[in-house]
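Entry for iron/sulfur cluster complex. Fields follow.
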Amino acid sequence: MTDSTQVALLGMDRNELGALAERLDEPAYRAQQLLEAVYRQRVESVEQISTLPQQLRAKLAEKNVSVGVPRIEQRFVSVDGTVRYLLAFADGQSVETVWMPEGDGGEASEAEAGDSEVRGAARGWGRATICISSQVGCAVDCQFCLTALLGVKRNLTAGEIVGQVLAVLKDQKVSPQHDRINLVFMGMGEPFLNYDNFIKAVRLLVQEVGLAESRMTVSTAGIVPRIHDFGQEEIRPRLAISLNASNDDQRTKLMPLNKKYNLGMLIAAARAFPLRNRERVTFEYVLLHNVNDLPENAREVVELLRGIKARMNLIALNPGPGIDFETPADEAVAAFQQILRDAGILTFVRRPRGRDIYAACGQLKRTVEIATAPVP
Ligand code: SF4
């Protein structure tokens, strides 16, 4: 480690912090102190790590070691309580992270109430969901998604992924030990195109931050080889697949990625996915008026999912400038849902959250020019 290299503690696991302590000629137990400070106490600077002697804190600062928590650049608050954060990293790049008290009626909404839910209810919410990003922008180019318009700027590091969660927990004054917090990897980016950093972040979030893997869901547009790898992970969130079409022609038009990994490959991967007790593969389907929201599409989806232990989340398109599709009528959404339910598929309609502040699904593109004033 040279003195000019910036080193972030956030993103390091127990072994890496142990190696750092060794390089600094410090005893091995420093690794535990650093883990506690960074992931549990959520300190923002080395100076705040009160368990370390002052001399060591000075040494860390001298060696350019920082914690590496992202800075909250802007915060937009929706009328429905959703908060969209614009979080900036050391190199000036930024991503969006969304806090949704009460979630969106989608993933992880079925579980039973507990003490934490009662505690949250006193503040107006029983459970909350944090939606985090895995890349700056996205390369996948789904035609109904505003994030796609950004292209991909870079991958996030494991520390930057975990840092989003810590920044929001701190800002909302909540913790996974006391509050019912769900996490979804459904913000900007395709997590399976940044697989190693994503999975390292998952391990840190479970083992060090204390989030339950059963309350975490990752959504992929369908990177088939990584779905197979993901199924082999010892620690992993639940799997969601962004389906959005009922046949290959339509899916290739809406999601060009389908040319590489077509529906046959994708559905085969879902079918082979090793599910745990009481687990299902979630499918997400953005309904676009008169494009993929017709009864025949619903019937094709039923055929595709036959024999898979699935649940379906339907999302009526969240509109945005530059998106050439329209939001379907409520009746079309209800009819689509009914066809799936009649076929025995557990099907939910996700409530749009934070549409007024561009925080809803497919709307994350670092929009700052909106009527709602950012909260200082
Ligand atoms: S929907 Fe997801 S995978 Fe598709 S472009 Fe948007 S962020 Fe990327």
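NOTE: The CA atoms of residues 124 and 133 lie 26 Å apart.
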